[in-house]
């Protein structure tokens, strides 16, 4: 009996030692998928991943000596920024200002930030081909740093933010070749065991500058051509706010002369606007604890406003006085309001979240200086946990948890549900849904309410893929925490 006990103890010790070896030397980790079900995966350490990227980029630079050198760890010294000022008496952001991101600018830039210029997941550029060969291959594919940001695209450059070792890195790439054009890095390493490590917020491009927000609140305005720091600040420090459980994920919004971010501070510092060329704090508003959806600039009932989804509610914020025009309570488990709202016509908005909450359409009616809010319908047939839906011809398409679904936007009626794509992402292009699955496949689905019809599926990138795909003049850019790739979907290619 004693011998058996000794043998059992020895076997247990060997098993523990084997697991330790796999963990330390081979990168074995228990990683949850979108359902939070753990799975065993072998991953590179951040340091090993950073070394592999640098080796790849060094080979790129050797092949193309003219490639612009990196801006360095932290880049050139940033311009002096005035001390933060709560903005009493500061001029408000004016959406009609000459520096505003106008529709013509957005079309020319193709995909200026998170989910496109309107943050609605619609690609409105040149048509893409919707008949894919079975062996559709990427134009290029290469390693990338960790994190869940996607790409902003302008002038043939794609901008994103990555985790490389112990640094967050804003990077620019040539869309057609994938060559790294510049990087700008700073010390930051956001770690979170359930969602994963690295930065979350997609950079925003506007008028020659790239606005990159790190997971721990570092906000930098960078020159699009060089990566040089124009100004920098930390939005959490400025707002005297604590970070969210899953980090800063709401992409900066550029409207007029302002960059709007969501630090989530109390005492009227939950929403903050910085002067986009200097970094001067223009104004702050609200007291809400924030969540993970990005702010939007929308118009309801002819009134321009900022649409904010905090951890507790949807809010319409006036542009001139930053006052609440309307609000609607929306509370999700773990305070995860991560999806983007969808504007429907002149006076309706759709919102959805996961963890059993579901979706609703709200109708806004002018009532003097404010709006009355009426719930048109609510159900649990669309639960956007880590993705957002899209609207096409009166129908809403999105991932109900991990399964693609179609709802009638007017009634909420379920038209169909099909296609298990995991916790991926959905965008709309040329009347079709372009879906990236949680495991890295690229899928084309007809955006039709009569039935679920999958047209094509090809492998894109390896590993868990929660990052939103981006478009640029018919080129589709895909990335996740390990790889990035580009697919040429221009007609005739």
* Amount of helix: 10-25%
Give the radius of gyration. Answer: 23 Å
| Number of helices in the DSSP assignment | 4
C-alpha end-to-end distance: 72 Å
The percent range for strand residues is: 35-45%
Structural class: mainly beta
What is the fold-level CATH name, i.e. the topology?
Answer: Methylamine Dehydrogenase, Chain H
CATH class: Mainly Beta
Q: What does the overall shape look like?
A: globular
**DSSP summary, beta strand count:** 35
What's the CATH architecture? 7 Propeller
Query: Could you name the CATH homologous superfamily?
Result: YVTN repeat-like/Quinoprotein amine dehydrogenase
Whole-number tally of structural domains: 1
Largest sheet: 5 strands, mixed
Strand order of the largest sheet: 3-29-30-31-32
Could you list the spans in which at least 5 consecutive residues all have pLDDT below 50?
75-109
pLDDT averaged over residues: 89
Write up what this structure looks like:
With 493 residues, the chain is mostly beta strands. The chain has one domain (38-488): Methylamine Dehydrogenase, Chain H. It is built from four helices and 35 strands. The longest helix is centred in the N-terminal third of the chain and has 25 residues, at 2-26. The chain is globular and about 75 Å long. The chain starts with a helix and ends in a 5-residue tail after the last strand.
């Amino acid at each position: 009996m004693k011998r058996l006990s000794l043998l059992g103890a020895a076997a247990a010790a060997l098993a523990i030692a084997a697991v330790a070896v796999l963990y330390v030397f081979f990168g074995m980790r228990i990683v949850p998928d979108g359902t939070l079900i753990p799975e065993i995966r072998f991953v590179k350490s951040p340091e090993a991943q950073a070394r592999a990227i640098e080796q790849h980029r060094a080979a790129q630079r050797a092949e193309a000596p003219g490639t612009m050198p990196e801006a360095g760890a932290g880049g050139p010294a940033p311009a002096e920024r005035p001390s933060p000022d709560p903005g009493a008496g500061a001029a408000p952001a004016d959406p009609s200002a000459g520096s505003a991101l106008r529709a013509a600018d957005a079309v020319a830039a193709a995909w200026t930030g998170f989910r496109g210029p309107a943050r609605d997941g619609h690609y409105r550029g040149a048509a893409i081909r919707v008949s894919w060969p079975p062996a559709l291959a990427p134009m290029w594919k290469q390693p990338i740093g960790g994190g869940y940001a996607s790409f902003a695209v302008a002038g043939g450059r794609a901008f994103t933010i990555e985790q490389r070792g112990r640094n967050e890195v804003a990077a620019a790439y040539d869309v057609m070749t994938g060559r790294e054009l510049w990087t700008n890095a700073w010390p930051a390493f956001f770690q979170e065991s359930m969602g994963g490590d690295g930065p979350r917020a997609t950079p925003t491009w506007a008028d020659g500058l790239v606005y990159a927000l790190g997971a721990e609140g570092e906000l930098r305005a960078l020159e699009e051509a060089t990566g040089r720091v124009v100004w920098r600040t930390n939005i959490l420090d400025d707002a005297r706010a604590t970070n969210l459980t899953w980090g800063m994920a709401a992409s900066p919004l550029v409207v007029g002369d302002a960059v709007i971010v969501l630090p989530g501070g109390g005492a009227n510092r939950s929403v903050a606007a910085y002067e986009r060329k200097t970094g001067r704090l223009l104004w702050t508003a609200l007291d809400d604890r924030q969540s993970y959806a990005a702010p939007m600039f929308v118009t309801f009932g002819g009134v321009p406003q900022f649409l904010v989804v905090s951890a507790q509610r949807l809010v319409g914020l006036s542009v001139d006085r930053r006052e609440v025009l309307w609000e609607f309570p929306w509370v999700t488990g773990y305070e995860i309001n991560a999806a983007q709202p969808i504007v429907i016509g002149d006076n309706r908005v759709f919102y959805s979240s996961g963890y059993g909450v579901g979706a609703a359409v709200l109708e806004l009616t002018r009532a003097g200086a404010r709006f009355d809010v009426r719930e048109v319908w609510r159900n649990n047939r669309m639960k956007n946990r880590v993705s957002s839906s899209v609207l096409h011809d009166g129908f809403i398409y999105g991932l109900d948890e991990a399964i693609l679904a179609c709802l009638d936007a007017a009634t909420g009626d379920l038209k169909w549900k099909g296609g298990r794509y995991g916790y991926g992402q959905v965008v709309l292009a040329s009347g079709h849904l372009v879906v990236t699955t949680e495991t890295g496949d690229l899928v084309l689905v007809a955006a039709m309410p009569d039935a679920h019809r999958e047209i094509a599926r090809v492998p894109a990138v390896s590993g868990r893929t929660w990052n939103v795909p981006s478009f640029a003049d018919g080129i589709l850019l895909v990335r996740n925490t390990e790889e990035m790739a580009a697919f040429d979907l221009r007609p005739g290619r």
